[in-house]
Amino acid sequence: MSELTPVDTPEAEESAVYPVPGERLPPPAYDELDAILDDLRSREEEIPQWEFCEGFMAAVICNRRPLSPAEYLPMLLGDGITAEETDADGIPALPAFADAAQQARFISLWQARWNEVQTALDTKVDNLGDERCYEPEVMDMRGAIATLSEEELAEMGDQEVPSFGQIWALGFMFAVENWPEDWAAPRDKEAAEWLDDALTRIVTLTEDDTGKPELSMFSEDGPPSLSQARLDAFGDAIWAVYDLRQLWKSFGPRVETLRKEAEPGRNDPCPCGSGKKYKKCHGA
Known about the structure:
Layout: H1 10-14, H2 27-41, H3 50-62, H4 69-77, H5 100-121, H6 141-145, H7 150-156, H8 166-178, H9 189-205, H10 228-251
Helix pairs in contact: 3-8, 3-10, 8-9, 9-10
């Protein structure tokens, strides 16, 4: 990633030099996103972590029907009701943000990451080591906690720590579950099996990693925090996202067909309520 940082002036800190069109978001951008979401949680407890947002974003990009920000942003950061009033860019005002400037900054970073993910998913790659490959922004929380001192661990208490990639997968499936019609299996049997297999690979990550810790994604020399099977499952989930993107692009949005209501029989009562037979009323 390019090492872009804001310049050291108060004005520049409010409008950091990232995102830069065509550049990948640098690490400070994700720190800023985390800070914004932390602030939102001070007003609305159900605001998710960025890793959840990252998974949600990937699913929305893959969604069979293109979703507008007015439809998906309230589901992620609001009350779930599609916004009727939006700005010129189709962005609704969300009450969790402190002000319009904070929301605009979040949307700027969101859109930059959106462009990165969409470009990656539309690029043909043969291996996960390709620098053009989609790389979900996830954190090895168990690996991070394993590096803490006993005092720091005592302060944390007995809170549950998610497995590697678990929050990302939950965010992805949150979007799938909220637009079920768009994720309904197609009639084509092979495509339906393809869809089921891809979603199963992502659902696998929503479950806990119960394997023997062998690796650390937090640091190269950190204590083991995830199993090899978990890392393999994470790779499978990334390929699943590619499969889902290509599947729905090949099918396109679902076409709604209008069904003509069955016409009453000639001797049936007329549906207008006149009490006459259809043949002697509106069917005459």
